[in-house]
Amino acid sequence: MAKESFEKALLSLEKAVENLEKEDLSLEEALRWFEQGVERLALCRKALQEAENKVELLIKERDGRLRTRPFEGPEGEE
After folding, report:
1. Which of 5, 27, 34, 53 is the most exposed place for a label (fewest CB within 10 A)?
2. What's the pTM?
């Protein structure tokens, strides 16, 4: 699956939740929406963790200046 933006994954997750709240879903439809929701939730969590890691790379120098250093994601990705 191509890399999906956080915003697109979040919208897709919200759509899955909306559909799961419908009372007229068959079991198969509910399972399909649940599976999609779990997948999108994982993508959102990963994107948030990567963002948190990037923020943590801001390091305060002794003189009060802030500097950044490259974030190395999983398998050396930046």
Report:
1. 27
2. 0.66
Q: Tens digits of per-residue pLDDT, 12-32? A: 999 999 999 998 999 999 999
Q: Is the dihedral of CA 3, 7, 9, 15 positive or negative?
A: negative
Angle subtended by helix axes 6-20 and 27-56, to nearest 10: 150
Amino acid making up residue 27: L
- Residue 26 is given by DSSP the state -
Cα 36 → chain centroid:
13
* 8 Å CB contact between 50 and 78: no
**Distance between CA 75 and CA 78 in Å, rounded?**
9
- Rounded to whole angstroms, the Cα distance separating 41 from 22 reads 20
